[in-house]
Design a protein that fits this description.
The protein is of the alpha+beta class. The protein has one domain. The chain is built from two helices and two strands; from the N terminus they run H-E-E-H. It has a two-stranded antiparallel ribbon. The two termini are 15 Å apart.
């Protein structure tokens, strides 16, 4: 997923508030690329949270490469 780099910490705090839904890992802090680690049981909750974020988030194909 890609967000504005300055919002990575905000995203992390949002998911910390939803305990046990997902962990946020920063892949590329310059380009705002993050990965969410969840389980099949939390997938629907993760997607609901992402759709309702107070800022735009772009879903990135896991096979895509950022250059």
């Amino acid at each position: 997923m890609q967000i504005e780099p300055k919002l990575i910490n905000d995203l992390n705090h949002i998911f910390e508030g939803y305990e046990h839904v997902a962990m946020v890992s920063t892949v590329d802090n310059v380009n705002g690329i993050v990965k969410l680690w969840g389980t099949p049981d939390t997938q629907a909750d993760m997607e609901t949270i992402i759709v309702n974020l107070p800022f735009p988030a772009k879903k990135i194909n896991r096979l895509s490469r950022i250059i």
